[in-house]
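This part of the workshop introduces the protein records we will be handling. To make this concrete, we reproduce a full record directly below:
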Amino acid sequence: MAIKQLTVFVENRRGRLAEITGMLAEHGINMNALSIADTQEFGILRLIVDDPEKAFDVLKGNGTIVQITDVVGLKLADRPGELSKALRALDGGGINLEYLYAFLSRADENAYIALRVEDNAAAERVLNAAGFETIGG
């Protein structure tokens, strides 16, 4: 089961990220994870939130370019080498990784990773078969 991720195109101008996160806060939407990459003209903000559909509506309604994408959630033991083992399993299963980013949980001592791959179901099968726990939203 995939996690819903918001992909937001952010203009490279002072205060824009604060506006976007402020819109979410004003509507009671909690951010669980985020990643941002930039180019000269815009940034790509990736978010995992507690209510992706509401966040999508809020951002879209305020003229923000946003889309919802499914990503694979991966729970890893928080110890050296676990991410490498998971990535090797994906590689061995012929799964190409587009990007990933980590996020935290205050509930336990595990690491959590959001993985963007071409085929989420295949990636989940490969990871589960290798003994890893995938998580859904």
Notes: The first strand starts at residue 3 and ends at 11. Residues 16-26 form the longest helix (11 residues).
